[in-house]
Amino acid sequence: MNEPVQKKETLENADEALSNIVEGFKRFRRDVFPAQQELFKKLATAQNPRAMFITCADSRIVPELITQSSPGDLFVTRNVGNVVPPYGQMNGGVSTAIEYAVVALGVRHIIICGHSDCGAMKAVLAPQSLESMPTVKGWLRHAEVARTVVEQNFARCDCGQEHLELLTEENVVAQLNHLLTHPSVAARVASGQLFIHGWVYDIESCNIIAYDAESGRFLPLDGAVVPMATPRSRFNLPG
Fold first, then answer.
1. Using one digit for the tens of pLDDT, what is the confidence trace for 67-121?
2. Residue 56 a catalytic site member
3. What is the DSSP string of 94-147?
4. Residue 30, CB half-sphere, CA atoms under 13 Å: how many?
5. What predicted TM-score, i.e. pTM, was given to this entire model?
6. Which of 148, 181, 139 shows the shortest CA–CA distance to 166?
7. Among 15, 29, 31, 56, which one carries the catalytic annotation?
């Protein structure tokens, strides 16, 4: 969610935009699909994703590209602000997707991924900008906890870029906490069968920082040890 990015000297009109999308499909069918036809044949009747990836609806974030994943590797859910509503508040698409991914598909990892220059986080900092978008305003109440954490614990933080970056990080932590209110998630995390992760992707630099629950900090994803947001398991059932 953000302001449109003008990549060309003139913006596409509606017909040009649709034409480019259709032409892209034609190139995919002609140039890409034939080389991967066996993969798509296997995927035609079953899926076995290695992770669920919850991220923002922002058009600049492409999980499969960022992680170099193939079709069938990621079970992706996207929404404004990479939000996970707490269990019981809303029987909506995000909650349904989480339950299906964990119970039906048996994913072993859930990644919540925020990103730089997030329009949703900018809106949380400037709620007056949402007066004409009441449903978005209501949805982003799930990020209010992150705004409060930043305002009450980072007194020296101004309302500029640092504030936005801190809010983006704290929103990922908040959504991780919401994720653990879902019974299917909590049960499998407690038994060591499911692992949760909180990432923030920087669009310009391609860097990713990940939340480390043990230290309570965000650390580089590509460091010597992969940071983990998963609480310690308590039952140690076989995976």
1. 999 999 999 999 999 999 999 866 789 999 999 999 999 999 999 999 999 999 9
2. yes
3. HHHHHHIIIIIS--SEEEEEEETT-HHHHHHH-GGGGTT-HHHHHHGGGGHHHH
4. 6
5. 0.91
6. 148
7. 56
